[in-house]
């Protein structure tokens, strides 16, 4: 049982690291491939669109914590360790969407402060670092339930 949890925990860490690095890849793409920002090209970006994208990105990162907690509670109630992995992936994907909005801001709106959404996404994903205790809570069986 312990080796099973060890393997599942290692899988969670690898998934978390891959999702965090994906945000880094998006940022590198935004730096090296994107067109000039609006301030460099003389255009004025749409403030309403920038505020909307930033608010949506912030909402998604904050909401990712609530979604993760809901799935973790369900994993404990149902004693299903697969829900722990699902909680991590869903939460990190919600944070990653914030980075995608930053990419959109860079390519379409050409806002100079697009990197704030990347920073928000990276911090949110970093805070979702998997804990072994989450797996242990979802795999605990009462002694009366065994055998």
Molecular structure report:
- There is one protein chain.
- Helix content is 79%, strand content 0%.
- With 147 residues, the protein is an all-alpha fold.
- The protein is built from six helices and no strands.
- The longest helix has 32 residues, at 47-78.
- Main beta sheet strand tally, sense and closure: none
Which structural class should the secondary elements be placed in?
A: mainly alpha
Q: Number of helix segments?
A: 6
Give the integer mean of the pLDDT values: 87
Q: How much strand content do the residues show? A: under 5%
How many domains?
A: 1
**Low-confidence parts:** 142-147
**What Rg is obtained from the alpha carbons, in whole angstroms?**
19 Å
Helix content: over 70%
**Distance, first to last CA:** 15 Å
Please write the string of helix (H) and strand (E) elements: HHHHHH
Query: What's the shape?
Result: elongated
Q: Please count the beta strands (DSSP E, at least 2 residues each).
A: 0
Element layout with pairings:
Elements: H1 2-32, H2 38-41, H3 47-78, H4 82-109, H5 115-127, H6 132-139
């Amino acid at each position: 049982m312990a080796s099973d949890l060890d393997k599942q925990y290692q899988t969670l860490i690898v998934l978390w690291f891959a999702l965090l690095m994906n945000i880094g890849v998006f940022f590198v793409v935004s730096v090296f491939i994107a067109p000039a920002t609006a301030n460099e090209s003389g255009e004025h970006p749409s403030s309403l669109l920038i505020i909307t994208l930033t608010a949506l990105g912030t909402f998604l990162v904050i909401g990712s914590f609530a979604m993760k907690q809901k799935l973790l509670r369900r994993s404990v109630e149902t004693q299903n360790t697969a829900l722990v992995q699902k909680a991590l992936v869903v939460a990190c994907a919600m944070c990653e969407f914030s980075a995608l909005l930053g990419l959109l801001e860079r390519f379409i709106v050409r806002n100079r402060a697009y990197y704030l959404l990347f920073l928000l996404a990276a911090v949110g994903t970093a805070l979702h670092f998997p804990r072994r205790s989450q797996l242990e809570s979802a795999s605990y069986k009462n002694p009366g339930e065994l055998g």
